[in-house]
């Protein structure tokens, strides 16, 4: 398993600014190694368990797009920070009974991997008269403990949801293998990129395959080298959480 770095908790805007600057520099260096434009990578700060005061500091630093994996936590934060023009990306597994909530407030859903959820989301978005950016989650590591479609299922899934015009399908998302073997980790990212590239043809107008959401605090540089357009980073920005990730997001270990 990838050794877990010591993530110091950012308690002041100065500390938080330094963390963001460090991550942004690392993103820039990874883009240089891959001969990519740094503007082609979006940093998505993951704010699960991060308190409102710290999130408001992040907003002061110029960030207004945050990732949350627990619907209830995201809903509470969106209500309490309604005074700020924040956009919310739901990045965790979604049960059908929670769809009605994210249809109201979320801009983006990154973990679509169920036809039932897609049907419910289309239905609720029609009621709310909204559309939503969605990414299809793919289980590139082939681990039973993780959600997401098997790579061979993605093309058929896209066919099944082509008529769901409220779902603005923009690409794919994955959680890589948690391993100290960086080449095995890299293979997950390569697989997602190759899968995305093969799915680009014959898509309806509300679908495209531009986005690759892959890479977290422990592996985002490898992900960028392999084509990531969104990196989801939490602890490297905000500091270590009190409880392990398994408490908040059972299917992944503590590296987001």
From TrEMBL:
A Pfam family: Ala_racemase_N
Record keywords: Pyridoxal phosphate
Domain (Alanine racemase N-terminal) ranges: 23-241
UniProt KW DNA-binding keyword: no
Cofactor: pyridoxal 5'-phosphate
GO molecular function annotations of the record: pyridoxal phosphate binding
Family (UniProt): Belongs to the pyridoxal phosphate-binding protein YggS/PROSC family.
Purpose of the protein: Pyridoxal 5'-phosphate (PLP)-binding protein, which is involved in PLP homeostasis.
UniProt cross-references to HAMAP family, sorted A to Z: PLP_homeostasis
Protein name as catalogued: Pyridoxal phosphate homeostasis protein
UniProt organism field: Psychrobacter frigidicola
């Amino acid at each position: 398993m990838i050794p877990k770095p010591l993530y110091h908790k950012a308690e002041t805007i100065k500390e938080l600014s330094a963390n963001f600057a460090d991550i942004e520099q690392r993103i820039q260096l990874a883009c240089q190694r891959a001969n990519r434009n740094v503007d082609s990578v979006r940093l998505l700060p993951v704010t699960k368990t991060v308190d409102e005061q710290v999130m408001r500091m992040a907003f002061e630093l110029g960030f207004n797009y945050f990732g949350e994996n627990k619907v209830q936590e995201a809903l509470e934060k969106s209500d309490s920070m309604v005074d700020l023009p924040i956009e919310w990306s739901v990045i965790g597994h979604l049960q059908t009974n929670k769809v009605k909530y994210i249809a109201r407030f979320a801009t983006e859903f990154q973990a679509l991997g169920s036809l039932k959820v897609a049907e419910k989301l289309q239905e609720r978005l029609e009621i709310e008269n909204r559309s939503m950016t969605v990414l299809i989650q793919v289980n590139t590591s082939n681990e039973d403990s993780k959600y997401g479609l098997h790579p061979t299922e993605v093309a058929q899934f896209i066919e099944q949801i082509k008529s769901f015009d409220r779902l603005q399908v923009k690409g794919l998302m994955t959680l890589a293998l948690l391993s100290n073997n960086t080449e095995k980790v890299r293979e997950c990212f390569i697989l997602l990129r190759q899968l995305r590239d093969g799915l680009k043809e014959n898509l309806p107008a509300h679908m495209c395959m531009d986005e690759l959401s892959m890479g977290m605090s422990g592996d985002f540089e490898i992900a960028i080298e392999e084509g990531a357009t969104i990196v989801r980073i939490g602890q490297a920005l905000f500091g270590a959480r009190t409880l392990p990730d398994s408490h908040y997001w059972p299917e992944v270990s503590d590296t987001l």
